[in-house]
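How a chain folds remains the central question behind the approach discussed here. This step matters because it turns folding into a mapping between discrete strings. The sequence in question and its structure tokens are set out directly beneath this paragraph.
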Amino acid sequence: MSENEFDLIDELYFVQPFQYLRDSLGWQDELIIATLESLHANGYVKCLRSPDEEVFEDLNLARDGKNFYFLATKKGLMAHNTI
């Protein structure tokens, strides 16, 4: 897990919208999206349309990521806490 991935997962112990990540991390949108894509590919984060509706199909973070909510998965939290 990279330092950016670690820092982003640190913000996802609870469901958070994209705007929260932008405000709390102070990163450019492109870096947030790239890091979320990497975390999602490894099964470390869930993407949600609303705080309680997970996105399973047609996931395109580059196009839609700014409209989603995010949450670390159990696998992501385990990886985060073992570093």
Notes: The chain has one domain: 3-81. The mean pLDDT is 94.
